[in-house]
Amino acid sequence: ESCGRPVPEHVNPTDYFLDIVTPGLRLDASDHFSAMFKQHLEPQILRQVERGMELKGLRVEDLLLSKPGTRLGHYAVPFHMQFKQLLRRKVAITLRNPLALFGIGVMLPVVFGTFVGAMFTGFGHQALLQQVGFVFILITVLGLGGKQLMPILIEERRFLKHETSEALYAEGASVLASFCVDVPLASMGAALEILIMFCFAGFDWEHLGCVFFWCMLVFFVYDSLFGFVAAVAADGQQAQALATPV
């Protein structure tokens, strides 16, 4: 109304506003509003801009540092906070989908150990040649168990690549968080598999320490090797192809 264009009665205000500021329409008043703007509002805006340019405000760094706990650097939070959050997420994901890691890392070795151990029941009391065959099968089953986790490692690496490219956290924090969850579960599965097969075979308990030590050592070697293959392979198929000769 102050610009001389009041809204008529029984007219939608929104439609009327669009009609009077749209060039080419019958009610076009865009030139009139442009002139009114330059006459009344533009001088006020320019004065505000000049006053704002004379005032020196805080820099971006000063604004960030004004908040307690803020640090300048490549990452917004220190390494220990990155590790804490990633570990919480890793545990939550594992508990939410236990079959993805807990089932493959723990339950599957228990099932393998039960079935394979049942086939070698009593071999601890047989001749040395049969006992060597049992130990060979035990080590083979332990070594090949690490291949089951390669697809999961590759899937996690895909998320790692995108998140680290945005500088959300350091690669070392993610690796350490995964290590704290994956390795204990995998070690638990391997230890249970060794104990189950050892019990089925019927060896004397005085040999348990020696057998357990060397079998776990072989497991960690092969698990590390398959983890390396998963790290260098482009996808799951290439990882399986690279791990086949192993």
Pick out its properties.
246 residues; elongated; mainly alpha; single chain; 10 helices
**Low-confidence spans: pLDDT under 50, at least 5 residues?**
none
In round numbers, the mean pLDDT is 81
SSE-based structural type: mainly alpha
Main pleated sheet: none
The number of E-state strands comes to: 0
- N-to-C terminal Cα separation, in Å? 84 Å
Report what the structure shows:
The chain has 246 residues and is mostly helical. It is 72% helix and 0% strand. The chain is built from 10 helices and no strands. The protein has helices at residues 13-21, 30-54, 60-65, 79-96, 98-119, 128-145, 150-165, 171-201, 208-232, 236-243. Helix 6 packs parallel to helix 9 (208-232) and helix 8 packs antiparallel against helix 9 (208-232). It is elongated, with a radius of gyration of 35 Å. The chain starts with 12 loop residues before the first helix and ends with a helix. The mean pLDDT is 81.
In short:
The chain has 246 residues and is mainly alpha-helical. The protein is 72% helix and 0% strand. The radius of gyration is 35 Å and the shape is elongated.
Note the topology.
Blueprint: H1 13-21, H2 30-54, H3 60-65, H4 79-96, H5 98-119, H6 128-145, H7 150-165, H8 171-201, H9 208-232, H10 236-243
Helix pairs in contact: 4-5, 4-8, 5-6, 5-8, 6-8, 6-9, 7-9, 8-9, 9-10
